Amino acid sequence: MANNEDTLMREVEEELRRERLEQLWKQYGTYLLLAAVILVIAVGGYQFNKSRQQAAANTAGAAFANAVYLVGEKKLDEARKVFEGLAENGPFGYAALARLKLAGLDVEAGDKAKAISQYEALARSSNADDLLKSFARIQIASLKIGEVDFTEVENRLNDLAGESNPWRANARELIGLAALKAGKLDAARKPLEQILADPTSPSDVRERAQMLMAEIISAELAKVSPAPVPKTEAAPADKSGEPAAQK
User: Fold this and answer.
1) How would you write the chain as a 3-class SS string?
2) Are 99 and 118 a contacting pair, CB within 8 Å?
3) Which of 49, 80, 154, 226 has its CA 20 to 30 A from that of 148?
4) How many other C-beta atoms can be found within 10 angstroms of the C-beta atom of residue 237?
5) pTM of this prediction?
């Protein structure tokens, strides 16, 4: 008897579940189908977009490598056209690298204004990597040293010279160089001392900082050293052996 009751209860529960599912389907079946279709479309669209991005990256990578090869072959006009195309229409990463290459070509050609324009475009880009944007700002400052006053160079580099910035050694070096060129020895000494005190400073930057410090020390010594007293020549003696002035 107990077995029959258990069987009956199971059948009733299964029937209730079936009826509930049917009711849910009647109420929400259309929405569930729509959600399933949207999910399939979204997954398909994501995969398609990912495939397109990968194809674009592969194409841009091949074009960039070819342009670098053209530079090595001294075919600069052809290389420039490829870099310009990538800078305008390439994926974000290759667009930034192409701008760096264009700026480098302009620097080698002696066109500082055009190089600065390329670096500024990269520094303003909302899509470029922050590290590359900071590098572009470093290059702008380096090209402006000697053409603008020290304060402008310092203002461009102050935030890059902070302790947590990966470009701090380069920024400090440029601040020190600009200050030295402006004759501001105290302002030049501080960032250079920071470089020498920082164990993470690159070795080449450290060596240049030591050279600049040597220039500062020489300039400071020249300021405090007394001027040498000019030597006076003795008056020539006459035949009697006495100086001519005493006769």
Assistant:
1) CHHHHHHHHHHHHHHHHHHHHHHHHHHHHHHHHHHHHHHHHHHHHHHHHHHHHHHHHHHHHHHHHHHHHHHHCCCHHHHHHHHHHHHHHCCHHHHHHHHHHHHHHHHHCCCHHHHHHHHHHHHHCCCCCHHHHHHHHHHHHHHHECCECHHHHHHHHCHHHCCCCCCHHHHHHHHHHHHHHCCCHHHHHHHHHHHHHCCCCCHHHHHHHHHHHHHHHHHHHHHHCCCCCCCCCCCCECCCCCEHHHC
2) yes
3) 80
4) 13
5) 0.67
Residue 225 near residue 217 (C-beta atoms within 8 A): no
**pLDDT single digits (tens) 13-37:** 665 566 666 665 566 666 555 555 5
CA distance 240 to 247: 10
Token duo for residue 16? 């209730």
